Amino acid sequence: MSFKVAERRIWDATTTLEALGAAEVALWHWEPEADRLRINGAARALGLSPLAPECSSAAFRALALPQDRAQAEELLRVREAGAEIVVRLRMRSGGVCIWRGVWLEEGVRAAGVIAPEVKFAASGKDELTGLLDRRSFIARARERLTHDGVHELVVADLDRLRRLNEALGHERADLVLAALGSRLAAAFPEGSILGRVGEDEFAVLCEPKGYEPAELLRTALEQPLRIAGFDIHPTLTIGAVSAEGGEDAPEAAELVRRAELAVEAAAANGRGSAAAYGRSMETDGLSRLALEADLRGAIGRGEIIPYFQPVVRLSTGALSGFEALARWIHPRRGLLPPDEFLPLIEEMGLMAELGEHMMRSAGKQLAAWRRSHPAVGALTVSVNLSTGEIDRPGLVHDVAQVLAENGLPRGALKLEVTESDIMRDPERAAVILKALREAGAGLALDDFGTGFSSLSYLTRLPFDTLKIDRYFVRTMGGNAGSAKIVRSVVKLGQDLDLEVVAEGVENAEMASALQKLGCDYGQGFGYAPALSPQEAEVYLNEAYVDGAAPVKARG
């Protein structure tokens, strides 16, 4: 079949531009050496007409919103051939656009396509509630924040969603979330931006005029529900943040982050609380993030080291050994107490690594003291096993290796285990403890009296030491119940032929009272806090020269 040329459908440049315009898409072409950016297609619809058909890099930067200048620079940055570009930009005269492209020749030219952000987005709806999903909520909020005026972003966290899932099942718990979504949509005036921004988080961005958004949200969502025959009384933890709209408005994702930071601060005060964002929260959050970043590798760099608290024989005052306690010597912040970093180590899954490091470091230090101070005799060092570490693969092997490499006798390295760790699986714990004992470790049951262990298990587990929790020791002078517990634990230790160590000894009066009860050992601030290795060696020298470890007359 033949066609006349006039009848042929030719895909020429004009047709291409018409197609791009109809699809609200434009093409861009950047030549850094010529300082020329060319734009063809739907420039007007995208708010790029001041730049079309071509402009300089300076003009391009000037049209971008101030908070997006870094993204504009990223688009113009010269890269190697084949490098892909994906940049999200807001321009003064238009909406939010995604610029995609590739470098065709290194340092010579790059080209790609420009389209509204919604062209690249999915449906943007949360299927369960019908509200905007997190990505679409942020996109809509970003657009809204370009408008002048005061905007308020409120994020509400549904308390105890996990409990609801466990009690009702996921399908019924989903009905709760769907009902709350409907209530939220009905409560706020038209024009408010509503979203489900997390599994249990709802968010609202609005311009409050005549109402308080957080109160309106709480009133709407905390009404009782009846789901599958169950009465549900939802409670919310709420965080809020305000912002001025316009060219200098904060990035929407950043605003959501601030509101969620306020939710975390409110949660610290209990369920159903509320908090407004403040810069102090930002400082705390950044400090925590910085601490987490510094923690990675801190153990390997030797920043976390054992400090040693003396353990003293009460009958003679002789130094018996030390308990090794983790301390972080931060390169900028100095000595950090354990409550500032141990919870983070646990969250980051580094407790097993820390436990092994502490055991090896403490064993090495003990061996050095025993070599350089023959008079120390049977000096021991105790190391705490963190929660769950008793199940760590290789624990028994590591204990045997530490003892063998450092030439330490059986019982010189003591491992302290908590009651709760034992009672999670007493039968398995008994097997592991027996293996640790056979490998040469001494075993102490730590914080005895605070748990709910069965005494029948205690008779079957290979412990050689009981440690009385410091609370009972410190309060035994003024609390009859604490005094009875201390007396009972000491008697139990004697009956089972176990050594008993009292923690929290603060003065000579306490030490004397414990000795009269028949308690074997004491440790606490009355003797010394946890000491650096150098300070502990000085303490060791003084204790053996004087013949007894000094104890404070009063705490």
What is the CATH homologous superfamily assignment of the largest domain? Answer: EAL domain
The averaged pLDDT comes out at 84
Distance between the termini: 108 Å
Measured as a percent range, the helix fraction is 25-40%
CATH topology of the largest domain: TIM Barrel
Q: How would you sum up the global shape?
A: elongated
Kindly report the spatial arrangement of strands forming the biggest sheet. Answer: 14-15-17-18-19-20-21-22
| Proportion of strand residues | 15-25%
The total count of strands amounts to 22
Helix-strand makeup class: alpha/beta
Tell me the major beta sheet: 8 strands, mixed, barrel
CATH hierarchy, class of the largest domain: Alpha Beta
Summed up, the helix count is 20
Taking all Cα atoms into account, the compactness measure Rg is 34 Å
CATH architecture of the largest domain: Alpha-Beta Barrel
Count of discrete domains: 3
Give start-end ranges of low-pLDDT stretches: 1-11
Summarize the structure.
This protein is of the alpha/beta class. It has 20 helices and 22 strands. Strands 14-15-17-18-19-20-21-22 form an eight-stranded mixed beta barrel, surrounded by five helices.
3D architecture notes:
With 555 residues, the protein is an alpha/beta fold. The chain has 3 domains: 13-116, Beta-Lactamase, CATH 3.30.450.310; 134-278, Reverse transcriptase/Diguanylate cyclase domain (Alpha-Beta Plaits); 304-546, Alpha-Beta Barrel (TIM Barrel). It is built from 20 helices and 22 strands. The strands form 4 sheets. The protein has an 8-stranded mixed β-barrel with strand order 14-15-17-18-19-20-21-22, surrounded by 5 helices. Strand 4 (84-90) and strand 5 form a beta hairpin. The radius of gyration is 34 Å and the shape is elongated. The N and C termini lie far apart (108 Å). GO terms for molecular function: cyclic-guanylate-specific phosphodiesterase activity.
